[in-house]
């Protein structure tokens, strides 16, 4: 099943997606991408279906061939302040704002979004597996976020962010249990399954 080029033909359409929503640490990152009509790459698919190697190959290709792209980070502090859903939408808005061309239509991965500057939008569940521009945005969001997590892994190597990218793996949770949390952890998230039962 190939990805569709656009939701509306003959409109400048931006696809947007985020990465890192389910993580316990680090920012949520969103990207927005406007692709040219003739865009093709055999690897392009929903970033969750791709290997890290494939995403790394796609990233420069998308950046060089897109008509415009933007990538925005929202920190764990802001996530704690406004909640992860609002932070994800804010990241998407900021990434759209960074586009050098204003889109005429926006397609969004997922089912939650707030209107951006009166530009019509359509939310699409599993949009990153259906539309090229959302798939491209998902690749950029994920690769930029992974790079960031690898960078902060050097600062806190005991949490294995290089491997788990901040997701709630057993290894990550064991490290939180043993060492406590860092300034990159999201304080409002349930970081450990037994958190509710901890003796204070």
UniProtKB/TrEMBL annotation:
Pfam families assigned to the protein according to its UniProt record, in alphabetical order: RNase_HII
Entries under InterPro entries matching the protein: RNase_HII, RNase_HII/HIII, RNase_HII/HIII_dom, RNaseH-like_sf, RNaseH_sf
Keyword list, A-Z: Cytoplasm, Endonuclease, Hydrolase, Manganese, Metal-binding, Nuclease
Cofactor: how and how many bound: Manganese or magnesium. Binds 1 divalent metal ion per monomer in the absence of substrate. May bind a second metal ion after substrate binding.
TM spans (from-to): none
Primary localization: cytoplasm
Protein name: Ribonuclease HII
Gene expressing this chain: rnhB
């Amino acid at each position: 099943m190939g990805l569709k080029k656009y939701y509306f033909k003959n409109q400048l359409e931006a696809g947007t997606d985020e990465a890192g929503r389910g993580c316990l640490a680090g920012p949520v990152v969103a990207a927005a991408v406007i692709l040219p009509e003739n865009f093709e790459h055999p690897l392009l698919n929903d970033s969750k279906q791709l290997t890290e190697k494939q995403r790394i190959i796609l990233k420069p290709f998308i950046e060089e061939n897109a008509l415009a792209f933007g990538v925005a980070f929202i920190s764990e502090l802001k996530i704690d302040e406004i909640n992860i859903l609002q932070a994800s939408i804010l990241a998407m808005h900021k990434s759209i704002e960074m586009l050098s061309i204003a889109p005429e239509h926006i397609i969004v991965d997922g089912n939650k979004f707030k209107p951006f500057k009166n530009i019509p939008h359509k939310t699409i569940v599993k949009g990153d597996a259906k539309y090229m521009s959302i798939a491209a945005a998902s690749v950029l969001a994920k690769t930029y976020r992974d790079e960031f997590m690898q960078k902060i892994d050097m600062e806190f190597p005991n949490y294995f962010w290089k491997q788990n990218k901040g997701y709630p793996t057993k290894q990550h949770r064991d490290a939180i249990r043993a060492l406590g949390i860092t300034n990159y952890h999201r304080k409002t998230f349930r970081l450990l399954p037994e958190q509710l039962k901890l003796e204070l």
